[in-house]
From TrEMBL:
<keyword id="KW-0732">Signal</keyword>
<protein>
    <submittedName>
        <fullName>Uncharacterized protein</fullName>
    </submittedName>
</protein>
<feature type="signal peptide">
    <location>
        <begin position="1"/>
        <end position="22"/>
    </location>
</feature>
């Protein structure tokens, strides 16, 4: 069976997709609501772009897409309670990019090494990713998928 390294970055798309917001249902100050809506909109846009890129990506493009995703995370202006989590997720993606630098992802061996590295860093299941998931579920119109 051929490894599918693209699946290793799908959790990133899922984390970003959680921002597909319809608006906050919480009552609060207009500034807080505006900040939440802005963050949700930014994340939705990043998610859409990443999903589009992943759809046509070759295995060789995955490290570059991860690096771009990390940069995108760095450009987001998360609410105060997510600043550390977003920074941790960004660091996780950079750790994976560093771990797979130089791999030949056109080979089954390189693809397996990529998948192994993604598993080692815990891609898709880090506490920071889970915290972002919880926050966006609660604040971005319940856009998170249920499992």
């Amino acid at each position: 069976m051929r490894p599918r390294p693209g699946l290793a970055v799908l959790p990133l798309a899922a984390v970003l997709a959680l921002g597909a917001c319809g608006g906050s249902t919480d009552e609060g100050s207009p500034t807080a609501d505006d900040d939440v809506q802005t963050f949700c909109s930014e994340v939705q846009q990043a998610s859409t772009e990443l999903a589009s890129q992943l759809a046509g990506a070759t295995p060789e493009q995955l490290p570059t897409l991860l690096q771009q995703a990390g940069a995108t995370l760095g450009e987001l202006d998360p609410p105060a309670e997510l600043v550390d989590d977003v920074a941790q997720v960004r660091a996780t993606y950079q750790q994976l990019v560093d771990a797979v630098a130089g791999l030949d992802l056109s080979t089954p061996e390189g693809q397996q090494a990529f998948s192994d590295a993604a598993g080692t860093v815990g891609l898709g299941s880090t506490p920071a990713e889970l915290a972002i998931d919880d926050w966006t579920t609660a604040n971005c119109g319940g856009a998170a998928p249920s499992s």
